[in-house]
Amino acid sequence: MTPQQTGSGDRRLVYERPAALTKGSTHYCPGCGHGIIHRLVAELIDEMDLAPRTIGVASVGCSVFAYDYLNVDFVESPHGRAPAVATGVRRVRPEAFVFTYQGDGDLAAIGTAEIVHAAARGERISAIFVNNGTYGMTGGQMAPTTLVGQRTTSTPTGRDPILAGYPIPITEMLALLPGVAYAARGSIADPSLVGKAKAMLRTAFRSQLDGDGFSIVEILSTCPVGWNLTPTEAMDHVRAEVVKTYPLGVIADRRPTRSATAAPSAVREDAS
Fold first, then answer.
1. Is the dihedral of CA 72, 74, 79, 85 positive or negative?
2. pLDDT digits (tens, 9 = 90+) for 39-79
3. For residue 146, is it left (φ>0), alpha (ψ between -120 and 50) or beta?
4. Tens digit of pLDDT for each residue in 203-260?
5. How far apart are CA 272 and CA 264, in angstroms?
6. Per residue, what are the HEC states of 81-147?
7. For the chain, percent helix, then strand, then coil, each to nearest 5?
8. CA-CA to 246 of 20 to 30 Å: which in 104, 149, 213, 271?
9. What residues contact residue 191 under an 8 Å CB cut-off, 6+ apart?
10. Closest-CA residue to 32 (of 221, 220, 206)
11. 3-state secondary structure (DSSP) of residue 70
12. Given phi > 0 = left and psi -120 to 50 = alpha, else beta, which region is 158?
């Protein structure tokens, strides 16, 4: 926000809580990225004047607590079923702005069918996909997005692709579907990347408002407790290692409202 004079000498207002963000501290573990992402979503809801018409859908996992921190109407869905619930909400309330807020265990595992078919149908919803590569709420087990070699409580010697398969690049998979108007991957690993992630979310939200189709923004986040790292080490790990498996950037952009000089559909634009 633009600094404002406070009337007290040279002091300026440099921070203000978004109206769409509830007061108080979050309960998340130190270094968790959910709080940062909540802030970005709240800022955009305010800036785009979406609060009166917004309905969020949160599923099971740490992501479900978004309804405690975002001052908009929310529906809690069964595990993995947020896209199906959001589809119903959007069709009953076509004037609403509808988004899902989901973790990787939820969206890319038990909810794979729901997200794939919502995207294939081109549902006018926006999915916010928080990828920290683990089941954070239930004990730090391996998730579909866990890196090869990563140690979890269910892969104590590291993920072995022969036994457990390879990480699923779910956003790239969804980007192949014609119903996906916009797909991108950002990160909250440092301030510059936070700003780029916000820009991606803004584009996804605008795409829904323009009626383009399904949009998804994956955000690489942290789980310091699940990763057995300090908050600083976790951020460094995302910036240095996680992006090797999950490159940042715009993965698909089929919005008909794009400039004629924009990159062709489904071509990645590096955001690192």
1. negative
2. 999 999 999 999 999 999 998 888 888 889 999 999 999 99
3. beta
4. 999 999 999 999 999 999 999 999 999 999 999 999 999 999 999 999 999 999 654 4
5. 19
6. CHHHHHHHHHHHCCCCEEEEEEEHHHHHHHCHHHHHHHHHCCCCCEEEEEECCEECCCCCEECCCCC
7. 35, 20, 45
8. 213
9. none
10. 221
11. strand
12. left
CA–CA distance from 77 to each of 33, 63, 177, 184, 226 (Å)?
Answer: 22, 11, 24, 24, 24
Can you tell me whether residue 63 is helix, strand or coil? helix
Token pair listed for 147: 């890196």
pLDDT score recorded for residue 231: 95
Tokens 């790292």 correspond to: 229
Domains and their CATH numbers in the chain? 26-270 (3.40.50.970)
List the structure tokens of 144.
């579909």
Task: Report the distance separating Cα 108 and Cα 78, nearest Å.
Answer: 14
164-168 contact pairs (CB < 8 A, 24+)? 167/133, 167/245, 167/246, 168/108, 168/144
CA distance 203 to 182: 8
Compute the distance between CA of residue 71 and CA of residue 157 in angstroms, rounded to an integer. Answer: 42
Alpha-carbon distance of 229 to 34, in angstroms, equals 17
Give the amino acid at 179: G
Distance CA(237)–CA(258), nearest Å, equals: 34
Structure tokens at 128: 């916010």
Amino acid identity, position 225: V
Asked whether the beta carbons of 217 and 184 are under 8 A apart, the reply is: yes
In this prediction the pTM is 0.90
- CA dihedral over 43, 52, 100, 69, signed as positive or negative: positive
